[in-house]
Amino acid sequence: MCTLEKRGDIFYLTLTGSDEHRLSPALIASILSALSEAASQSTRGSVLVTTSAGKFFSNGFDLGWAQSAGSPAEAQRRLHQMVEEFMPVVAALISLPMPTIAAVQGHAAAAGLMLALSHDYVVMRSDRGVLYMSEVDIGLSLPGYFGAVVRAKVGSPAARREVLLRGRKVRGEEAVAMEIVEGAHDGEEGVAGASARLAEELAGRRWDGAVYAEIRKGLYPELCGVLGLTTKVIATPRI
């Protein structure tokens, strides 16, 4: 499933195992539990890094589990269940009281890409792995909050068109040029090192997590509206 480890100020949430990290109800629940634990333990200067083991960051929802249901109606119900249960994960990341970094060591597809984009920063490999929204190719429409995530996190209309309407498989340097990710680095060590350096830099600012979360939510009003998140005023300045 996933593990959560704290090293100093930095939480490391790791999708474990060597498979595709398909977002089944069990894995979704495990991620949500880890995010809740990180939020409850956050202090000034906390940072979250989400990464994975193996070839994939996440290959999206567990469509195999849905299709094994035995009937088209039950398969549809299971798919809808995963869509509904994943939305709180996105909401938790958008409201998490600390900066967040997705260290994408491999492929991030469909809901797996949504998981990555729900972080403040994304770093990925330049030598392996792609970002890919497969829905147009496999015949699935987008959940409303998926579109809201992409509009919030991918600034260029041309880039959004390439990702969503052409199903383009975007590699590291392309993703940097399209301003989808923060940086592309060689190998697992390159990604791990870049994400750790960024995390240390952010942790060193010693920001108040609650204030950080409210500023983040204010940056994405449409997405927060879709997710049902509200904002509040915090006025405790540190001079």
Automatic annotation (TrEMBL):
Keywords: Fatty acid metabolism, Lipid metabolism. It is an enzyme of class 5 (isomerase). One of its GO terms (molecular function) is delta(3)-delta(2)-enoyl-CoA isomerase activity. The keyword Coiled coil does not apply. Pathway: Lipid metabolism; fatty acid beta-oxidation. It comes from the Eukaryota. One of its GO terms (cellular component) is peroxisome. One of its GO terms (biological process) is fatty acid beta-oxidation. Its EC number is 5.3.3.8. It catalyses: a (3Z)-enoyl-CoA = a 4-saturated (2E)-enoyl-CoA; a (3E)-enoyl-CoA = a 4-saturated (2E)-enoyl-CoA. InterPro entries: ClpP/crotonase-like_dom_sf, Enoyl-CoA_hydra/iso. Pfam families: ECH_1 (PF00378). Belongs to the enoyl-CoA hydratase/isomerase family. This is Delta(3)-Delta(2)-enoyl-CoA isomerase. It comes from Rhodamnia argentea.
